[in-house]
């Protein structure tokens, strides 16, 4: 490729603009190079901590999504009233005024009748949409907010427990100091996810430094591919393995961190025969046994080292034991031999892994970092989407975190860290300060969260008025009941006083991201009016009445790309970093930014004061930057207000457009906050039992039985529906995983990524174990039918591999588009979610996470295509 | 160039940052990632192998080229002068690493939807009817930058430097970690070394 | 065991892992209970200072009014203020802000003259007339 | 590139053994035709000189010119063909280009002089034209094989037998041409032609068999895959139908006929043998499989 003969004359327009990516919710910092009005390159921003000047494959390919000719450019109106899968909506191009008036009229009618009849949905991929859409639904007055598949499939377990135990959205090893990391169904640093690009660098440095990585996963790709040891297990049995390892560590080897358990957990709290705390009659504070004084006192009145962790006691005639003792007894049940039967992981390996984790923890050691001595536990057990994507979502994840809690490897040097759970704020203004604090019963309340109801303290279950029933099932976040097949039956059972009528969507394609398309289609037909703001016409658009063309991330502005820090700012030592998004290109056709559309809609509905108040509250604007109730702001003005409020009057939007990012150093007391904050975390979930009783009190009289084994205070292994399927011929556990080259169902339309995925052996194929496939007469490249007991069926091309558990069937990403709106993506890959039932029986009774593994039958369709 | 297979996690960053830098047409990859497995279950390992032109010291592609279009530039970089190349594609057959691509006719990533502004801007310098290959991002080197694939690698698996200088980082890495090359038996003395995973 | 997690100081707040700290103040003191915002000027100064309560989002339609005023004769806690509102605006209002056990929902946010306040904080009338904003934010999130 | 060709490229790049499609498929077939014509032209010139068939010389020149044109049509940038002289030192294609030019100039000049019947000083010129033609012929017959041998990327071609094979093809092509010419002109140049043809055919079979055997036992996966493609893969039809049946069986049967060899049978033998040569060249070119970039474990699917 020869050199350009003549260097182009100094191009009039040749600018590098510091902004943020939006190909996945990692939102890494980018530099967009624009020459003569055309964006010709996207690179990482070396000044920024998020990505450190690098991008993954998706980040650099954003150009081809930006310039995709199939992007929507004009508002569209449906002319064909009949709605159905593949039914042509008969789109007619209309003006923005007509479109917004139609939407505003519909929403205003509903707001006057009952604002709760509006459901608002946003895609998790665009982090910039969180504040505007949450504020819009708060201002409108509806509690029915959902992130659809993005939340339902990969969040309810991980975020709930990361929030309660680590005060953060998810957990990651402290790559700088960790020596032994165990991954349960997670990829941190090897595929997609939070702060993925930064983690890639950190993880690689750690591996190069010699950190040993044990990856527990049914398939050996991404993290498992780079692991020092891959531990294949039967899908969905992570809890059994983790609990067995805990058992080996605590009971067989006697390794646990007593001082940590006494000071930082509810281990010493005394538990009565009714599995609840013994409480001080006056202050209602849980009692602990003071070994020095030989008497039971409230936990607040006993120095931690005097608290009893073992033994049986009597308090006013009531027999009781510290919760840690009950946990130890409970763990005895999980012998490695028993776990081997459930997980197929050999007992010897389980015993070895438990021992290694315990010994490597170096209980009791400390280390000096930046002149500050902090406890040093160079081990980390982390989990994410894979482990918690099951009925047993809560216990799978909690069991993994117990490994950390037993040896005190939680938010200390080298251990399992939350993503920046504590921040002492921006030095000059003191803003952005948040620290976990002690809540009821001394248990930790997270300092920062993504939604505005914190995971702990648990809300009081009540007869639900939310469509997602989250106010009854109080541990749930994103709910399946917005699109479940049995939603009407459940609403009637709990006499929910209204039905949804309007749906406002941003970017979600729930026809593909939730479950079987038939069920979702039925639920969508019930809506009277659906409006969607999106980049493309998706399979979901077939059910919309109005579709509005959105600007993409290279045409938009946003003031908080990587805040809250618990979401996608890299964890561990280093620097705090605040970056923004600024436009590098003009909108094409009549595309408008979703935030401006919402501001416009709010004005037309007449809820501008409410919207502004919600924005003030969501962004926590302080005077003098608070938005006045009656003024109609532009989104740039809101961004400017937030930036000035946080960083001082001279650092508004224009300053950030110039400088890109602002950074300030992290302190050890922030990163390793566990040693500096007086908070305890529950290794014994007493409140779960309390919540279970209350929920049952409401649900059971109405005929909905609550399986109480899910509401026990201690984690257990509870089989998924797929584990109980004995149907002959159904001998594979199908699961799906995140692909490094794709985000949800969105990036298949990017031709570069699609091309790379077509070259990848696994991306669009169905991974199946070589020997088991050959023994069934299945060959590499065969096109097969994959069928569930319920008759749901998808087809796909086989990839015979050694890198998967013999019973496993691995499908990548969220592919298998059938709509015409995304022609490059159409027909690529396998639509896994078609196999998933969406109903009460297939979602966790605790946090409503959908069960993502399903037993399937594989039958050959024809020879190689 | 040295590529550390222990660090590489197969994120396709090299393949795509290279494509973004040069606007190569569909099916043309100056840098590429190969994935394959080794071993039997359960002790199986996935190998990620990023490949690109090795800029061999005695390159067969330069020898077979009838018009001296394929030539050595200063620093040992092998490049093609598109004004000389007649498109006979002998070089494609001669390269044991098949890192050369023939640009038969102009085509775009969105097919008949036509070229995107990006493709128009970037592909102005690509001739049709000639062979294309990686030139270690010579324009970037001229600006003192690292090649696009090296600069963007999230796990810093790729290091670029002067192999002739014994104490450059690349030379030391090769010495310390036992760098190896692909198909050494082809006798082309390639200049891209790999470090064992 | 070098670093015992047990505290040295008797005081509950100091239940920290015993670790050598080199004079660096670990945690700035918690926010003072009583909030000290600047006084507002445009309210009339005669009679007891008035507290103007603004209701936003879903609260306004349920309470059938955007704002109302409350005389501030004695330091009143926000919790009692909320109880008064719930009892005044009825069950629909109660359903939005209060749990069955009387606790206020975490996502119900209060702002006194623009500064966030907790339910347990107390408003000091001496600071003159003030504005209180009330809004219920979105509770669920994911992804 | 049509989406169908693009899909094929993607499928190729994903397979362990990536076939080369540039030479031999689509416009690439022109290259094989070009090589075939130039080879036959060289062979015909040699045979015609030996058997003094002036018509053959003319036919050789025409075939050579046609071959050159077809070569140019194959190139991506035909207008720059003259630049192919530059790298004579190491590039076989460059040498081939020079040889073909010499051949065309030499044979063209010699034929022109002969045709115009010029005497005197022109005879000296004719002589040196003949010399040029001779040099050109030697080069164009010999260089072709080496082009393939120089391709380190395709192990199947990278064998020393290829040049010998192409030389044999050239002669076989030459004889075939003579057979056709003699059938057409009714002048039987000499009875030894068929025997010579048989001898060379045996030689070709021997070399080809050796090459296949070498490729299989050479331990190189790609070479073995190429042979597999020819004998039992995507090129089997081409090879068995075109090369063996048409190029070998038909002529041998015709020769074995009890009745005397008539002109038409001779022409048929010639044509069949030429077709056989073309198909064997096409199948070996299309069978080219790139050297895989990684050690493929033996148990590859």
SSE blueprint and pairings:
The complex is a heterotetramer of chains A (865), B (197), C (143) and D (301).
Chain A: E1 14-20, E2 29-35, E3 38-44, H1 57-60, H2 62-66, E4 76-78, E5 91-93, H3 96-113, E6 118-122, H4 130-140, E7 145-146, H5 148-152, H6 156-166, E8 171-173, E9 180-184, H7 196-209, E10 212-216, H8 223-226, E11 229-231, H9 238-252, H10 258-264, E12 270-271, E13 287-290, E14 295-298, E15 313-315, E16 318-322, H11 323-332, H12 336-343, H13 347-360, E17 366-369, E18 372-375, E19 379-383, H14 385-388, H15 393-407, E20 416-418, E21 423-424, E22 433-434, E23 437-438, E24 444-445, H16 487-493, E25 502-506, H17 510-513, H18 517-525, E26 529-534, E27 546-549, H19 565-568, E28 575-579, H20 594-605, H21 608-619, H22 635-647, H23 653-659, E29 661-665, H24 668-671, H25 686-699, E30 732-737, H26 751-759, E31 765-769, H27 770-775, E32 783-788, E33 793-801, E34 808-812, E35 854-862
Parallel strand pairs in A: 6-7, 6-25, 9-10, 9-19, 10-11, 25-26, 26-27, 30-34, 31-33
Antiparallel strand pairs in A: 1-2, 2-3, 4-5, 4-27, 8-20, 12-16, 13-14, 15-16, 17-18, 21-22, 23-24, 28-29, 30-35, 31-34, 32-33, 32-35
Helix pairs in contact in A: 3-20, 4-20, 4-21, 6-15, 9-12, 9-13, 9-15, 12-13
Chain B: E1 2-4, H1 13-22, E2 31-38, E3 45-52, H2 60-64, E4 70-72, E5 78-80, H3 90-94, E6 101-103, H4 117-123, E7 130-132, H5 138-142, H6 148-152, E8 158-159, H7 169-177, E9 193-195
Parallel strand pairs in B: 1-9
Antiparallel strand pairs in B: 1-8, 2-3, 4-5, 6-7
Chain C: E1 50-55, H1 59-63, E2 67-71, E3 76-77, H2 78-89, H3 91-97, E4 108-112, E5 115-117, E6 122-123, E7 130-136
Parallel strand pairs in C: 1-7
Antiparallel strand pairs in C: 1-2, 3-6, 4-5, 4-7
């Amino acid at each position: 490729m020869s050199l350009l003969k003549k260097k182009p004359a100094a191009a009039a327009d040749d600018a590098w603009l510091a902004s943020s990516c939006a190909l996945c919710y990692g939102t890494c910092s980018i530099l967009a190079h624009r020459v003569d009005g055309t964006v010709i390159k996207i690179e990482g921003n070396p000044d920024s901590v998020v990505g450190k000047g690098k991008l993954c494959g998706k980040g650099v390919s954003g150009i081809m999504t930006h310039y995709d000719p199939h992007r929507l450019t004009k508002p569209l109106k449906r002319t064909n009233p009949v709605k159905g899968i593949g039914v042509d909506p008969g789109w007619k191009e209309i003006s923005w005024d007509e479109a917004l008036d139609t939407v505003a009229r519909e929403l205003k009618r509903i707001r006057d009748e009952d604002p709760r009849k509006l459901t608002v949905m946003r895609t998790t991929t665009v982090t910039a949409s969180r504040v505007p859409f949450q504020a819009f639904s708060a201002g409108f007055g509806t509690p029915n907010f959902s992130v659809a598949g993005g939340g339902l499939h990969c969040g309810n377990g991980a975020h709930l427990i990361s929030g309660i135990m680590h005060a953060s959205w998810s957990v990651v090893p402290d790559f700088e100091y960790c020596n032994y990391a165990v991954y349960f169904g997670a990829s941190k640093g090897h595929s997609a996810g939070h702060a993925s690009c930064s983690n890639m660098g950190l993880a690689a440095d750690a591996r190069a430094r010699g950190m040993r990585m044990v990856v527990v996963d049914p398939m050996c790709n991404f993290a498992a591919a780079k692991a020092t040891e891959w531990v294949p297990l039967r899908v969905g049995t992570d809890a059994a393995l983790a609990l067995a390892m805990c058992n080996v560590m605590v009971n067989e080897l006697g390794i646990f961190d007593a001082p940590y358990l006494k000071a930082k957990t509810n281990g010493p709290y005394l538990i009565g025969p009714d599995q609840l705390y013994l409480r001080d009659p006056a202050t209602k504070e849980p009692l602990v046994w003071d070994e020095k004084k030989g008497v039971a006192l409230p936990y607040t009145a006993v120095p931690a080292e005097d608290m009893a962790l073992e033994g049986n006691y009597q308090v006013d005639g009531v027999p009781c034991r510290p919760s840690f003792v009950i946990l130890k007894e409970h763990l005895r049940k999980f012998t490695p031999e028993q776990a081997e039967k459930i997980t197929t992981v050999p007992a010897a390996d389980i015993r070895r892994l438990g021992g290694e984790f315990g010994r490597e923890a170096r209980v009791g050691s400390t280390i000096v970092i930046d002149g500050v001595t902090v406890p040093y536990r160079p081990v980390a057990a982390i989990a994410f989407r894979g482990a918690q994507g099951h009925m047993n979502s809560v216990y799978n994840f909690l069991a993994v975190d117990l490994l950390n809690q037993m040896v005190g490897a939680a938010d200390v040097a080298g251990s399992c860290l939350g993503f920046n759970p504590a921040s002492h704020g921006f030095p000059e203004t003191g803003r952005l300060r948040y620290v976990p604090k002690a809540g009821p019963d001394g248990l930790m309340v997270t300092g920062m969260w993504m939604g505005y109801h914190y995971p702990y303290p648990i809300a009081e279950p009540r007869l639900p008025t939310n469509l997602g029933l989250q106010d009854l099932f109080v541990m749930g976040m994103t709910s399946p009941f917005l699109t479940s097949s049995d939603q009407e039956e459940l609403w009637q059972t709990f006499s929910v006083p209204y039905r949804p009528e309007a749906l406002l969507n941003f970017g979600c394609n729930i026809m593909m991201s939730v479950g079987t398309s038939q069920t979702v289609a039925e639920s969508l037909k019930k809506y009277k009016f659906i409006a969607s703001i999106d980049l493309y016409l998706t399979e979901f658009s077939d059910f919309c009445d109005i579709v509005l063309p959105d600007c993409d991330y290279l045409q938009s502005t946003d003031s908080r790309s990587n805040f809250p820090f618990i979401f996608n700012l890299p964890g561990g030592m280093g620097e705090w970093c605040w970056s923004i998004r600024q436009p590098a290109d003009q909108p094409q056709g009549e595309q408008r930014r979703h935030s401006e559309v919402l501001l416009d809609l709010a004005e037309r509905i007449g809820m501008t004061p409410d919207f502004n108040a919600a924005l003030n509250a969501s962004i926590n604007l302080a005077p003098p930057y608070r938005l006045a109730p009656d003024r109609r702001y532009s989104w740039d003005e809101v961004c400017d207000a937030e930036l000035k409020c946080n960083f001082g009057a001279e650092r508004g939007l224009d300053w950030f457009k110039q400088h890109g990012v602002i950074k300030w150093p992290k302190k050890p007391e922030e990163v390793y906050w566990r040693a500096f904050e007086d908070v305890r975390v529950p290794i014994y979930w007493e409140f779960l039992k309390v919540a279970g009783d209350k929920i049952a009190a409401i649900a059971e009289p109405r005929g909905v039985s609550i399986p109480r084994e899910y509401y026990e205070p201690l984690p257990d292994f509870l089989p998924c529906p797929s584990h109980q399927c004995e149907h002959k011929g159904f001998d594979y556990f199908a699961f799906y995983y995140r692909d490094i080259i794709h985000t949800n169902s969105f990036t298949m339309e990017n031709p570069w990524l699609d091309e790379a995925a077509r070259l990848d052996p696994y991306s669009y194929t169905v991974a199946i174990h070589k020997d088991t496939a050959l023994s069934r007469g299945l060959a590499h490249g065969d096109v097969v039918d994959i069928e569930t007991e319920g008759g749901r069926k998808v087809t796909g091309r086989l990839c015979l591999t050694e890198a998967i558990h013999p019973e496993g069937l691995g499908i990548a990403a969220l592919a298998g588009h059938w709509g015409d709106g995304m022609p490059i993506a159409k027909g690529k890959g396998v639509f896994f979610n078609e196999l998933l039932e969406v109903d009460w029986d297939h979602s966790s009774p605790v946090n409503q996470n959908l069960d993502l593994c399903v037993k399937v039958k594989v039958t050959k369709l024809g020879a190689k295509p | 160039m040295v590529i550390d297979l222990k660090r590489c996690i197969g994120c396709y960053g090299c393949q795509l940052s290279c494509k973004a830098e040069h606007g190569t047409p569909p099916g043309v990859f100056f840098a590429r990632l190969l994935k394959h497995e080794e071993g039997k279950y359960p002790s199986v390992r996935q190998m990620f192998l990023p490949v690109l032109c090795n800029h061999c010291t005695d390159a067969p592609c330069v020898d077979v080229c009838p018009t001296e279009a394929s030539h050595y530039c200063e620093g040992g970089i092998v490049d093609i002068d598109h004004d000389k190349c007649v498109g006979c594609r002998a070089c494609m057959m001669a390269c044991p690493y098949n890192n050369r691509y023939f640009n038969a006719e102009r085509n775009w990533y969105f097919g008949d939807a036509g070229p995107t502004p990006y493709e128009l801007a970037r592909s102005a310098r690509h001739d049709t009817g000639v062979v294309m290959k990686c030139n270690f991002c010579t324009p970037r080197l001229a600006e003192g930058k690292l090649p696009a694939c090296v600069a963007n690698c999230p796990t810093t698996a790729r290091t670029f430097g002067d192999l002739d200088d014994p104490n450059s980082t690349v030379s030391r890495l090769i010495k310390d970690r036992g760098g190896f090359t692909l198909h050494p038996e082809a006798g082309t003395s390639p200049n891209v070394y790999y470090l064992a995973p | 065991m070098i670093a015992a997690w047990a505290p040295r100081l008797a005081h509950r707040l100091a239940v920290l892992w015993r670790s050598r700290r080199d004079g660096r103040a670990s945690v700035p003191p918690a926010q003072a209970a009583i909030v000290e915002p600047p006084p507002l000027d445009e309210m009339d100064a005669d009679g007891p200072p008035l507290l103007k309560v603004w209701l936003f989002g879903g609260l306004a339609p349920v309470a059938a009014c955007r704002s109302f005023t409350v005389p501030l004769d004695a330091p009143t806690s926000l919790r009692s203020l909320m109880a008064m509102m719930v009892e005044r605006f009825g069950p629909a209002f109660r359903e939005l802000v209060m749990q069955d056990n009387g606790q206020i929902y975490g996502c119900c946010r209060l702002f006194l003259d623009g500064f966030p306040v907790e339910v347990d904080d107390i408003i000091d009338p001496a600071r003159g007339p003030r504005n209180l904003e009330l809004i219920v934010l979105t509770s669920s999130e994911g992804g | 590139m049509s989406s169908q060709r693009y899909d094929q490229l993607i499928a190729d790049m994903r397979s362990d053994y990536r076939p080369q499609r540039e030479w031999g498929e689509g416009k690439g077939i022109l290259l094989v035709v070009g090589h075939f014509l130039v080879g036959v032209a060289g062979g015909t010139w040699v045979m015609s000189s030996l058997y003094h068939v002036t018509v053959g010389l003319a036919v050789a020149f025409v075939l050579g010119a046609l071959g050159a044109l077809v070569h140019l049509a194959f190139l991506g940038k035909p207008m720059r063909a003259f630049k192919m002289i530059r790298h004579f030192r190491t590039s076989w294609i460059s040498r081939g280009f020079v040889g073909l030019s010499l051949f065309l100039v030499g044979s063209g000049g010699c034929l022109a002089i002969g045709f115009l019947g010029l005497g005197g000083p022109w005879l000296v010129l004719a002589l040196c034209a003949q010399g040029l033609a001779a040099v050109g012929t030697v080069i164009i017959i010999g260089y072709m094989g080496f082009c393939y041998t120089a391709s380190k990327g395709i192990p199947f071609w990278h064998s020393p037998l290829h040049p010998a094979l192409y030389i044999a093809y050239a002669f076989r092509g030459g004889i075939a041409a003579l057979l056709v010419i003699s059938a057409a002109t009714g002048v039987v140049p000499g009875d030894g032609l068929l025997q010579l043809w048989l001898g060379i055919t045996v030689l070709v079979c021997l070399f080809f068999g050796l090459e296949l055997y070498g490729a299989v036992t050479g331990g190189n996966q790609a070479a073995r895959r190429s042979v597999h493609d020819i004998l039992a893969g995507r090129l089997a039809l081409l090879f068995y139908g075109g090369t063996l049946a048409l190029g070998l069986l038909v002529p041998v049967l015709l020769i074995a006929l009890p009745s005397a060899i008539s002109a038409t049978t001779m022409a048929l033998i010639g044509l069949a043998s030429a077709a056989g040569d073309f198909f064997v060249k096409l199948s070996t070119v299309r069978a080219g499989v790139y050297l895989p970039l990684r050690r493929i474990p033996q148990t590859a699917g």
